Amino acid sequence: MAEAEDRYTKDGTTDLKGNPSVKKDTGTWKACPYILGAFLADAYLGRFWTISSFMMVYIAGLTLLTLSASVNGLKPKCVDGKCHPTGSQTGTVFVALYLIALGTGGIKPCVSSFGADQFDENDPVEKKSKTSFFNWFYFSINIGALIASSVLVYIQTNVGWSWGFGIPAVCMAIAVVSFFSGTRLYRNQKPGGSPLTRIAQVLVASVRKCQVQVPEDKSFV
Predict the structure, then answer these.
(1) Is pLDDT above 90 for 177?
(2) Dihedral angle at the C-alpha atoms of 57, 62, 64, 65, nearest 10 degrees?
């Protein structure tokens, strides 16, 4: 009973469905990359350049992960089913995983919003097409998840990890080419600037003017 209770957060936080948050699956550093990507997109880079930049990071991580399972110098030596990686080999894998996590965190919070930017809410036809877009968008995500948890798992188990990692890397490369091929057709929202900067400006102005006397005539305020 105690173990079951310890699985969940105790501060009242919930997951997307309103259930108590499971500690090992939510929050902490796992949630931070997504916040970073959304912040950069809204404040400075815009969604297109944020997606473009983090795509490169993502594909670099996938490529490095593929190399770690393909290149002899990066693969650990295995004897009787037990593998003994060196420090550099372990480091390579972790760098690859962190790059993938960073790339995912930059892309995921921007893709759906960037897709929504391509449709004018004030146009009835485009507004209807926007609904259709999101239906296909989430359908594609679920198909990808199904393939990843079935076909790719089979390949990794029965063919090899190099193929299991290489196929997603190739698919990501194709996605990058496909994404950039439509560059001239995209509609882009201008970045709104950092909200932290505006908050800081208000705080500084408040401190500097805290001694200023307020005029009795409210029309001068």
Answers:
(1) yes
(2) 140
> Which ranges constitute the DSSP H helices of the chain?
2-6, 28-40, 47-70, 87-117, 124-147, 153-158, 161-181, 195-208
Please tell me what DSSP assigns to residue 193. Answer: -
Tokens of 78: 């295995």
Q: Is 79 helix (H, G, I), strand (E, B) or coil?
A: strand
Q: Where are the domains positioned within the chain?
A: 2-220
Torsional sign, CA 46, 48, 53, 54: positive
Contact criterion met (CB below 8 Å) for 109 and 103: no
The CATH fold of domain 2-220: Growth Hormone; Chain: A; (1.20.1250)
Report residue 131 as tokens: 């609904």
3-state class of 20 per DSSP?
A: strand
Whether 182 contacts 117, CB under 8 Å: no
Identify whether the C-beta of residue 62 lies closer than 8 Å to the C-beta of residue 148.
no
Cα distance between residue 4 and residue 8, in whole Å: 8
Tens of pLDDT, residue by residue over 13-71, are 665 566 766 666 665 555 555 566 666 666 677 888 889 999 999 999 999 999 998 88
| 8 Å CB contact between 122 and 130 | no
Is 82 strand, coil or helix? strand
- For residue 144, the tally of other CB atoms under 10 A from its CB is 13
Token pair belonging to 67: 């190399």
